[in-house]
Design brief:
By secondary structure, the chain is an alpha+beta fold. It has 14 helices and 15 strands. It has 2 domains: about 220 residues, no CATH class; about 60 residues, 2-Layer Sandwich (Alpha-Beta Plaits). Strands 8-6-7-10-9-3-11 form a 7-stranded mixed sheet, sandwiched between helices. It has a two-stranded antiparallel sheet with strand order 1-2. It has a two-stranded antiparallel sheet with strand order 4-5.
Length: about 325
């Protein structure tokens, strides 16, 4: 009976809790939030995307809460008010082209790189701390699972490193499976071929750091829906797509695959809306004429390229 009592909480829950205790500014509330998010992920996401029957009622409660505890003065001391915290500051994704996504699942050493404000332009959840990065779980996508007619396959969300991988495996054994780095790369490549964009996700309640790569489509992804509706949950890759009009034949294949609706046809050529383009690179890999390419744009932020970040970090260490 004593053993069963201790099993009330899965061992991975204790690992998650202990990691939280070692994390700066990680509160008990953050842990409870993270536990709920990780333990009941599908309910959490279904509520967040509005697909659950209770979602409208909870939205009304949230609006009531916001009206009672609405605002705090802005940091510059002006009379202007703003909400306590934009949801995007606590839960957000960084768009990563296929090569950058591949780097994140092929790290074979522990990594600690904090305060990546130039790469992850949010006030919270912007660290990359990888422990046992070779521990990777393929999870049924909660966003796709919440939809009536989801894109397939479902098992395309990648949970990377500890304590996250073990927590997900322990609490969602029917919806997850352990995979190797090579299998993770194959999932990324297959999703890229389907035209889905790769996002590295960060969340304050998930120890304030990177924990997953999602492969997202505009029809199912809650983050893309929020992004299109004005909640900036996604940060640009740091690139935009460009068109070589000498090679482009105006076939329209690229616009068919663009998850951010940044591509149209104009005067017989592909035209890119630079404001809408997030630099995911999906259009580049789906142009049969090789007329598209990603171009680095400083105004779009720094890319999340773990290999380069590690090199910069190592060069900064005293010798």
């Amino acid at each position: 009976m004593k053993t069963q009592g201790w099993r009330l909480f899965h061992p991975s829950t204790w690992s998650f809790f202990k990691e939280g205790r070692c994390t700066e500014d990680y509160s008990l509330f953050d842990f409870l939030h993270g536990y709920f998010y990780g333990r009941w992920t599908y309910l959490y996401i279904a509520l967040g995307t509005g697909e659950h029957p209770l979602a409208p009622k909870l939205a009304r409660l949230y609006r009531l809460y916001s009206s009672i505890f609405p605002q705090r003065r802005s940091g510059n001391g002006s009379a202007e008010y703003k909400t306590k915290q934009n949801i995007a500051d606590s839960y957000h994704g960084k768009v990563v082209p296929l090569e950058s996504a591949t780097q994140l699942v092929t790290v074979h050493e522990s990594v600690t790189i904090k305060n990546l404000e130039q790469v992850i332009p949010y006030s919270r959840a912007r660290d990359i701390i990888l422990k046992n990065p070779e521990h990777i779980i393929a999870l049924d996508c909660p966003c796709r699972s919440a939809r009536a007619n989801p894109c397939l396959p479902l098992d395309v969300c990648l949970i990377v490193g500890e304590p996250f991988a073990a927590f997900v495996a322990g609490h969602h054994p029917q919806r997850s499976r352990w995979i190797t780095s090579a299998e993770a790369v194959e999932i990324l490549r297959a999703e890229d071929e389907r035209g889905h964009a790769h996002h590295a996700f960060f969340k304050d309640a998930m120890l304030g750091r990177f924990y997953a790569i999602c492969n997202c489509c505009a029809c199912c992804c809650g983050a893309i829906h929020a992004h299109h509706n004005g909640t900036p949950m996604l940060a640009s890759s740091g690139f935009i797509s460009t068109v070589d009009e000498d090679l482009c034949i105006g076939c329209g294949d690229c616009s068919d695959f663009c998850q951010f609706f940044a591509l149209t046809l104009s005067d017989g050529h592909a035209a890119i809306d630079k404001e809408l383009c997030m630099g995911c690179g999906v259009c580049v890999s789906h142009c049969p004429q090789e007329a598209l390419a990603l171009e680095r744009v400083a105004a779009k932020g720094e890319p999340l390229e773990i290999a380069r970040l590690l090199q910069v970090f190592e060069e900064s260490l005293p010798h």
